[in-house]
Amino acid sequence: MRWTVLRRFAISCLLVALALPAVPRTRPHYGGTLRVEIEGDAWAQPVAQQGEQARRLIFDGLTRVDASGSARPSLAVRWASENNDHRWQFWLRPGVRFQDGAALTSATVESSLTGSCGASCPWTAVHAVGAEMIFTGDAPMPNLPALLAGDDFLIARSGSINSGSPNSGAASLTGPVIGTGPFEPVDFSNDVLTLVANDSCWQGRPFLDKIEIYGHKSIRDQWLDLSVGRADLVEVPAEQLRQAREQRLTVVASPPASLLALAIADAGALFNSSLRAAIAQAVDRSALSNVIFQKQGEITASLLPSELTGYGFLLTTDRDVNKARELRGGLAPPPLTLSTESNAAMQLAAQRIALNLRETGFNVLVVPAGGPQHTDMVLLRLTLRSSQPQAALESLLRGVGVAAPVLEDSPSGLYRVEHDFLETHTLIPLLYLPRAYAEGGRVRDLRLSPDGVPLLAGVSLEDTP
Q: Do 175 and 131 share a structural domain?
């Protein structure tokens, strides 16, 4: 009996001893430089799904979206609506300072918000009243707190959130880049954006001392640099998720958060709605999913993922070549142009769509994005900003230029809004794709936001043996 007790005691001591060395490895500590590599530009517009990491580290919004997709306090501590959501009042957080030491004021917030969206704002007017922000609208604004968490409404002291380059104290066309976030830019040269910790950040100092974001790096080079320790965080495109896991990369992936969609101009050669409807019938979503994106996407004909609404099955995703030809009838439009970003998978997807359309009688040429010529169709990616259906749908619609508020919040009401918009055939949802990243061995506590952006302010580093 005594030997049994002693043996159990010895085993317990051994287990405790083995566990003790692991404690320091998992406890966050301050210091170090995180090296991030991306395919695009580190300071590109958020609509391109590049530069989001940097902007959200430098700037804060009045609100933020939590893991459940709900609006939470950020620079505003609380808010309330009146007059059936025609009027909103937001109370600013006291004691917040910008990275240059200037105090956050309601006048600065008003200036930043007015400059960020101009006439396309979700509100009719915004006014600074003491330490409060007052938003008024001709139409109800039920989704305003969630919309204010978007990248378009991050607060910049100088109004330069969309300026070209944050240079080491140097002014751009609209002034220096100054926010209230956990990091501030100190240099942007040779495609490398350098951010340093904001010691006086209202949220508390981040763990990292510095973040370096290297732009215009191919996926092959990113993965190579990760394997040899030259990078800590790299991108994993949806079509390469399976390959990344087979190579035993440590992958962090979001739920489906990026909507692949075909935007069609309702003017010029495609003014006729029957032609646009024919294009919608001609696209083969299954081929895009199975061949181009390696079955990593969810085929959809809806703007929102089915798990958010439950009505996705009501919108058909099947290709119907005969219906496409019937809708086109005897109409013979001139040659059409289709553009997309330079990403290899997006280029392949555009070529596949062009082939689908040629099979139904359309003459389509894939052209570079941003060229001087008019483009009839654009293959693009839209980001699902929230997991709250009503706010998510309004955000997506605003992303394609539809400024009307979404007032419906029931599944049947949201379905009517979607159905009425999709009947214009100016946007054809195709696939929902996840966003994913691979991290190095010294990265700790990496998480993704609901729309798949890495939350780098909470990351710490640990030197591996």
A: no
Other residues' Cβ atoms within 10 Å of the Cβ of residue 202: 17
DSSP string over 321-381: HHHHHHHHTT--PPPEEEEE-S-HHHHHHHHHHHHHHHTTT--EEEEETT-SS--SEEEEE
Q: Which residues contact 110 (CB under 8 A, 6 or more apart)?
A: 126, 127, 128, 133
CB proximity list for 191: less than 8 A, separation 6 or greater: 41, 42, 214, 215, 216
**Does residue 2 lie within any of the structural domains?**
no
Helices 273-282 & 344-358, crossing angle to 10 degrees? 110
8 Å CB contact between 164 and 43: yes
User: Model pTM greater than 0.85?
Assistant: yes
Domain with 320, as residue range(s), is 258-433
> pLDDT by residue (tens digit) across 231-261?
999 999 999 999 999 999 999 999 989 999 9
Same domain assignment for residues 405 and 291: yes
Those residues whose C-beta lies under 8 Å from the C-beta of residue 65, and which sit 6 or more positions away, are 71, 72, 146, 149, 385, 386, 449, 450, 451
Whether 392 and 312 map to the same domain: the answer is: yes
Q: How many domains does the chain have?
A: 3
Judge if 266 and 405 occupy the same domain: yes
